[in-house]
Amino acid sequence: MTSSVGAVLKKYRWQFSGMVAWTLQRVTGILLLLYLLLHVHTISKLSQGPAAFDAAIATFSSPFFKCLEIGLLGVVVLHAFNGIRITLVDLGIGVGKQRQLFWTITVGMGLLVFLAGAIPILLFAVLKVR
Amino acid sequence: MTVLDALIRVQREMDGSIGFRCSCRVGMCGTCAVQVNRIPRLMCSTLVKTLDAEVVTVEPLPHYPVIKDVAVSLAPFFAQWRRAQAAFRPKHADAPTLAIIGKDSRFRQLAATKRDCITCGACYAACSITGMNVRYLGPAAINKALLRVLDPRDAARADRLKTLDQSSDGVWRCHTQFNCTAVCPRKIDLTDSIVRVKRALLRPGKALTV
């Protein structure tokens, strides 16, 4: 299985990026849904008063959750930029250049935005650099 | 040596019972499409050395009933081909002169990139939607219907658009995964055709042009 996947990628030089992008969109969509549930759960603590809410938020300021936050940022960015790619395709823009669209928008621009957010979180929230 | 050459050699020298189909051997008839190392392609146009693999696996195309070994029945493919009304239906069957499509017309220019389908069925095999929904038209039938719909001489535009617009098995089932485009041996941008049909259906007031 692994060798055939490798052969596919080698031979087609990522011509199947459309399928990769589609799968990424599904996986990140489900992850975002799970995050949304957690988010609603945390916000609902507000109904139990400021102390309960502060306690919930305190949990999320630990370095472990900050690392997860970097992951969340990655998921959001992938989903958002791939969404832009899909919208462009549906508008008939760049359909013939779908691979370039995937690499420049979903991967390229996504990576830039991800790093712009992930590096500060890592430095100031996880490693606590001053 | 192509994969087809290799298979013929296997048939002649090792096992005369293996079943596969081929005809033209030059990539123009679309008879020998199979899965080679998990990708749908024409055996006669696939050189073994370009596969860059120790083992070459030849399998029947997925999403089709297998007749024998790697020979499949393209019946599901042609059922959709008929449903999309692939045959041309002229507006003026009794016209005394031939209708002329100018070589500079936009229809003619788009058609040049879309009309080379050899009905090999590779796109239908690569599409993940056809694998889940046997009623889905599939890329080749939609591409053919687009050619007919845009043709100024065609009389069945409304019928075809109705079939294309069906929510459960028309163009809307396409998830723009581009697998069809990636495997087409004639390099037809099938996903582009599907996107064009979708956009045409969303703007019914607009004249159907390229």
Question: How would you classify the helix and strand content of chain B by structural class?
Answer: mainly alpha
Uncertain runs of chain B: none
Q: Secondary-structure element sequence of chain A? A: HHHHH
Largest sheet of chain A: none
CATH superfamily of chain A: Fumarate reductase/succinate dehydrogenase, transmembrane subunit
Domains of chain B, number: 2
How many domains make up the coordinates of chain A? 1
Element order, helices and strands of chain B? HEEHEEEHHHHHHHH
Cα gyration radius of chain A (Å): 19 Å
| N-to-C span of chain A | 48 Å
Poorly predicted segments of chain A:
none
What's the CATH architecture name of chain A? Up-down Bundle
Overall shape of chain B: it is elongated
How much beta of chain A, percentage-wise? under 5%
| Main sheet strand line-up of chain B | 2-1-3
Task: Please provide the count of β strands of chain A.
Answer: 0
Supply the number of helical segments of chain A. Answer: 5
- What Rg of chain B, in angstroms, do the CA atoms define? 19 Å
* Spatial separation of the terminal alpha carbons of chain B: 41 Å
Task: Label the overall shape of chain A.
Answer: elongated
Structure description:
The complex is a heterodimer of chains A (130) and B (210). By secondary structure, chain A is mainly α. Chain A is built from 5 helices and no strands. The mean pLDDT of chain A is 88. Chain B has 210 residues and is mainly alpha-helical. Chain B has 2 domains: 3-72, Roll (Ubiquitin-like (UB roll)), CATH 3.10.20.30; 75-202, Alpha-helical ferredoxin (Fumarate Reductase Iron-sulfur Protein, Chain B, domain 2, Orthogonal Bundle), CATH 1.10.1060.10. In chain B, the strands form 2 sheets. A 3-stranded antiparallel β-sheet of chain B has the order 2-1-3. In chain B, a hairpin with a 2-residue loop joins strand 1 and strand 2. Chain B is elongated and about 60 Å long. The termini of chain B are far apart. The chains are: A mainly alpha (130), B mainly alpha (210).
